[in-house]
Amino acid sequence: MAVSFALQRAQAIAAKQSGGASVVLQFNKASDMPIFHFHVDNGEFNPDDEGVDLPDLDAARQEAVRAAGEMINDSKQSFWEHMTPWIMNVTDDQNRLLFTLQFAAKVPSGQALYIPREGEAKNPLAEASG
What we know:
By secondary structure, the protein is an alpha+beta fold. The chain has three helices and seven strands.
């Protein structure tokens, strides 16, 4: 999915709304799509220097979730043993932070009970089908 971005990038030609703040996305001249960078810190910082062409911010959010799932799956047991949140910072081509995704595993150190908050359904699937 990574693409070489040696071509000169065009001026930003579209604006998207993100959390009430205007986000101007830089477009890849060759593909007419914005470029998103997915920088990951999983105990070791892994910058995304190339970026990925995606149609819009929603597609970048979907890609971040998909990539996080793939990273967790690829890490096998180390994700469960790491215990420090992994962080994915997604930026545009001007290095402006668009959003951050954090994911972590928490395993109790001893016997633990899950106590639902008041009003939380004990079995939401049973209630939805009933």
